[in-house]
């Protein structure tokens, strides 16, 4: 990890990120596009996702394990903003960060 990143154990040593495959059609030219992919590290993706639904969010991507990456989920807030949660702890309890 580069400078500024955060891990389960505390500050890391860098920025972490990645690209994901677009789901659905590409935006039409001139149409509004959400230009940021905000993903927040949490201890429990499933509990955070469920709480977000209770608070008025809608499912964009249900919690899912991504081998070698972690457990990830995305919500859409009432204003239409998409944001995600990630944890190094997979659904089976294994930690992808060792």
UniProtKB/TrEMBL annotation:
Biased composition (Polar residues): 1-10
Region of interest (Disordered), residue spans: 1-35
Residue ranges occupied by any VOC domain in the UniProt entry: 1-88
PROSITE patterns: VOC (PS51819)
Protein name: VOC domain-containing protein
């Amino acid at each position: 990890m580069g400078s500024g990143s955060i891990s389960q154990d505390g500050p890391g040593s860098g920025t972490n990120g990645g690209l994901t495959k677009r789901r659905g059609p590409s935006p039409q030219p001139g149409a509004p596009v959400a230009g940021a992919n905000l993903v927040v590290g949490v201890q429990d993706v499933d509990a955070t996702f469920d709480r977000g639904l209770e608070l008025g969010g809608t499912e964009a991507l249900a919690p899912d394990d991504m081998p070698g990456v972690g457990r990830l989920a995305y919500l859409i807030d009432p204003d239409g903003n998409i944001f995600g949660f990630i944890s190094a702890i997979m659904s089976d309890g294994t930690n992808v960060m060792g």
